[in-house]
Amino acid sequence: MTYKSLLTFICAIVLSLTATFGQITENPAVEEQSADYVKIKRVELTDQYTIIYMQFVEVEMPGNRQLDPFFRRMPGQRPGMTSSTIGLDPETRLYKPGDINTKFKLIKAKDIPTEMRKEVNAGDTVNFVAYFERLSPGIEVFDFYEGRPKSKTETTWNFYGVKVKNPLKKNSKAVAKTIPQKEKPKPSVAEVKPAEKTEEKPSPVVVEEEFAMIKGTVYDAKTKSQIPAQITYVEKGDSLQFKSSSGNYRIGIDPKSTYEFRILAKGYYGTNFSLAPADSSAKGSFTKDIYLTPLAVGETISLPNIYFETSKFTLLTESFAELDRLAEMMKENPDIRIRVEGHTDNVGDFDKNLELSENRARSVKTYLINKGIDAQRIEAKGFGATKPLAKNGSEAERKKNRRVEFVITQI
Q1: Would you say domain 210-294 falls under CATH 2.60.40.1120?
Q2: CA dist., res. 206 & res. 203, Å (int)
Q3: Do the first three CATH levels of 3-163 and 295-411 match, i.e. the same topology?
Q4: What band does 234 get if pLDDT is binned at 50, 70 and 90?
Q5: For the structural domain made of 3-163, what CATH number should be given?
Q6: Per-residue pLDDT tens over the stretch 340-381
């Protein structure tokens, strides 16, 4: 056998093995994940399966673990004990990012239970394997979605943006997951016989799982750089958290529920936003980027949800949540001092508007004092219509000018 023939033979063997064993990605890059103590070590794509090799490490030592949303406890287990339980939800899916209709089911799992929980102790390492339906060729990024936490004492293992080798095959198109049956050749006229009467059976109803996702990035409002953040939300009475070291977040949500999200980051003034998927025209996936203002001397921060009775300075109850957040921030940062500033539009008497804005700023100060903030840390000042944000040419512009802000004067 010549050298060229031997080389050709070896290449043929390698190509044969690649076709047999599929594409392998060792330690695939992951954009974001919900728990850092679980790793995806390897992804192998065969003709039949997407095989994901995973590793769980129980690193907590006695007395060090604090009760938090990322801790799965056995019933009756006390905080500080050295064991927890793990399992893989049988409803775990792989999704094509941004397309919840392209999903791949969990077929089986090895070395981890799917219908119960396995106890693990501090220092334990559990290597396990999950077999999913085969990713369609060409999908080289996927989301591993176990689901939403069922309580505040557990977490689910969700990985977003998992990058693997899965190129589209040359000279062929991606095969759809559902392949229609080939049409049978039509019989000739001579072969046509009267159809026999058969009892029609109703087609089985396929119930699709309901699933939606909200994703986005938390930014510094000044530098536009991504910042680590904590997203807190309430689902079915449980307060849940998602911590992101990069600022990117993706959270599975129930499309029939209404959510109130709170975004916090160290050194920044947090914010809230609401989401009611059922009332939105968007289906399946929602994008919400967040811009937080840094806590620095001279920074002006708007209080968007402050409301007063018309032409008065009496705070409405809808303002309390925003002011409570401001009071909490001042308690967490005891050296911060602020100046609350009231502003109005240019409709009406100038002097009366100036007085009204001053009284509204004082109302905010009084509220904060009643929440336990030292009066010496708060200054109140009204500017009337002297510092407009817009031209006051329309109601929308005037509404923008009627506002309450605070300026950080000391930190």
Answers
A1: yes
A2: 9
A3: no
A4: confident
A5: 2.60.40
A6: 999 999 999 999 999 999 999 999 999 999 999 999 999 999
Strand partners, 410: 337
List % helix, strand, coil for the chain (3-state, nearest 5): 20, 35, 45
**358 and 380 Cβ atoms separated by less than 8 Å:** yes
- Are the CB atoms for 398 and 357 separated by under 8 Å? no
What amino acid occupies position 331?
A: K
How far, in Å, CA of 243 to CA of 229, rounded? 6
Output the CA angle 263-293-251, nearest 5 degrees.
Answer: 25
Angle of CA points 187, 189, 192, to nearest 5°: 65
Residue 52 bridge partners (DSSP) = 43, 130
Tell me the pTM. Answer: 0.61
Distance from C-alpha of 334 to C-alpha of 35, rounded to nearest angstrom? 32
pLDDT per residue over 172-218, tens digit each?
Answer: 454 444 434 444 455 444 444 454 544 555 544 444 446 678 889 99
Percent of the chain with pLDDT over 90: 50
Domain ranges of the chain: 3-163, 210-294, 295-411
DSSP 66-105: PP-TT----TTPPTT-SEEEE---TT-EEEETTEEEEEEE
C-alpha dihedral over 71, 74, 80, 84, to 10 degrees?
Answer: -60
What confidence tier does 169 reach under pLDDT thresholds 50, 70, 90? Answer: confident
All residues at 6 or more sequence positions from 182 whose CB lies less than 8 Å from its CB, including other chains: none
- Using CA atoms, how far apart are residues 290 and 242, in angstroms rounded to an integer? 14
Identify the pLDDT of residue 37. Answer: 87
- Looking at the chain, the number of H-run helices and the number of E-run strands are 4, 24
Most distant CA pair in the chain: distance in Å?
A: 102
Helix (H, G, I), strand (E, B) or coil at 335: coil
Q: Please check whether residue 234 is in contact with residue 260, taking contact to mean a CB–CB distance below 8 angstroms.
A: yes
CATH of range 295-411; options 3.30.1330.60, 3.40.50.2300, 3.40.430.10, 3.40.140.100: 3.30.1330.60
pLDDT above 60 (res 143): yes
Residue 52's pLDDT is 96
